[in-house]
Design brief:
about 10% strand, 9 helices, EreA/ChaN-like  fold, two-stranded antiparallel ribbon, alpha+beta, 2 domains, three-stranded mixed beta sheet, 7 strands
């Protein structure tokens, strides 16, 4: 067995162990199961870094995932109200400024999502963002698309400190109850290092649909009253560009 095969076998064994703990906790504590899942993701990143850096050179790793996993949970309702953590938070705690979190957002467009867990995936039109949201604020600039740095100083940071809503769309999208289902209250400058937005163009998202076109069944609710978008409307974060 060579080094790559050994690493693959070890990771699969770790996955089985962590999955057993995750599914057991899922029926006991929603927060516990969420935290176990994201700790597993962070643990996998640590192992991958060690594996890729065995010759001595420190690797650079890009992680593409939903903003709910890669935005810093401490700056959102996840950490503030529900005691949830996520990969973005863990990477910042372990790597400091070397962890670059990039959140992606959009004002309007279309999304591939289902109306409920286990339902068929549909192409849905995203309702234009609310004026009191980060998406609405970015759209009001009139700039078609841009990347906004959230580290250091700048007059834009003061404007972003004002309390605003942020939209989150994931596997599930319910436009008829969008305010209740898809908006939450984060702190954009604290949750991300940079924010990338496309304010007018249609954005596409590939849902976690099964081969038959249906979304997976899931016995636990999504992280924030609904789920988070990809491009999840949120000025939050990713451990490498995304969202």
């Amino acid at each position: 067995m060579n080094r790559e095969e050994a690493f693959s076998a070890e990771q699969n064994a770790r996955l089985v162990k962590n999955a057993e703990a995750y599914y057991r906790s899922m029926y006991l504590s929603d927060v516990s199961s969420w935290n176990l899942r994201d700790r597993h993701m962070a643990e996998t990143l640590d192992e991958l870094e060690r594996h890729l850096g065995w010759r001595g050179a420190r690797p650079r790793i890009v992680v593409w995932a939903h903003n709910s996993h890669l935005g810093d949970a401490r700056a959102t309702e996840m950490g503030g109200r529900r005691d949830e953590l996520n990969v973005g938070q863990l990477m910042r705690e372990r790597h400091g400024r070397d962890a670059v979190l990039v959140g992606f957002t959009t004002h309007a467009g279309t999304v591939t999502a289902a109306s409920d867990w286990g339902a068929a995936a549909e192409r849905k039109r995203v309702v234009p963002s609310r004026a009191d949201s980060y998406e609405g604020l970015l759209h009001a600039t009139g700039i078609d698309r841009f990347m906004l740095p959230l580290r250091g100083a700048g007059s834009h940071l003061a404007a972003l400190q004002e309390s605003r809503l942020e939209r989150a769309i994931g596997v599930i999208y319910r436009p008829e109850t969008e305010r209740q289902s898809h908006y939450f209250s984060p702190s954009c400058p604290r949750s991300s290092t940079r924010c990338s937005t496309s304010t007018r163009h249609v954005r596409w998202r590939r849902s976690s649909a099964k081969p038959d076109g249906r979304t997976p069944r899931r016995p636990r609710p999504t992280p924030s009253a609904c789920s988070r978008a990809t491009p999840r409307p949120h000025c939050p974060s990713q451990v490498a560009p995304h969202r």
